[in-house]
């Protein structure tokens, strides 16, 4: 049997991705106890480039926020963001009038489509303990016919997201969080189907084979990932957390990106003494030209120019909030309020 690893290279940041994905940003920030108002204490702000802090100093960055870290109001057009908030909180607000607080394993799927402004702030919930943030944001492209689809967002609450757990002969467990793309275990068990993405997503089409799986392996754990359903899919693995794994028997050389054959199963084994994580991104490529600049991802330079003109003229609906990076009150539980609705949506009971 031929080796399913087609290419491998050291992992860079943000992670490069294969069509239909654009890239993935992984945020792992060791925020301290808050200042009592959900922000970073004043003494941690000194010496940083406030407003654009990507320093990682003291184990965290403020990004474009201060004292509350995060990304205040900014525009997008022509693609989607899939934000996986494994640990910590995210406060969302957008130009559609929607707002949310999510975290603790929740996923937000935002279709920017024809244009949206949103903010993503990271409030520090505890004034008495550290506030770690462990978050992935994946950029998924839209096909030409959906570049200008109406903007929309959807919450995938943690209790609704399937998890597959496999314990090997040594008793070590591997867990697969199935964010997108049905998962059929190689070992045994029923197919796991995640919540549907927004309707204009490339992932919403039945023939695109989009998958987003986060694999977490305890020390000594192993798992065999099933082959893709469509051999046209491009499939990439990101070993991004941990010290040593084997991919189909091949030892890793630091944290790496693997391009693998979609028609093959993939065996993972954690040889390290600590938890290891692998993200899988997969899908049938869109195979359309990509013209990208900052927050806009279109097909042509003319469309990019039009995106800038439209944003300057309309602000994609304007900003209905009193500040660029609004956050919810301390103690606010996770919820979402969708555009045009006064009713809140809450995570179901686990």
TrEMBL record:
Its cofactor is Fe cation. Residues 68-140 form the Pirin N-terminal domain. Pfam families: Pirin (PF02678), Pirin_C (PF05726). Residues 216-317 form the Pirin C-terminal domain. SUPFAM superfamilies: RmlC-like cupins. GO terms for molecular function: metal ion binding. Fe cation binds at residues 74, 76, 118, 120. Residues 320-350 are annotated as: Disordered. Keywords: Iron, Metal-binding. InterPro entries: Pirin (IPR012093), Pirin_C_dom (IPR008778), Pirin_N_dom (IPR003829), RmlC-like_jellyroll (IPR014710), RmlC_Cupin_sf (IPR011051). Binds 1 Fe cation per subunit. Gene3D superfamilies: Jelly Rolls. PANTHER family: PIRIN (PTHR13903:SF8), PIRIN-RELATED (PTHR13903). Belongs to the pirin family. This is Pirin. It comes from Stenotrophomonas koreensis. The lineage of its organism: Bacteria, Pseudomonadati, Pseudomonadota, Gammaproteobacteria, Lysobacterales.
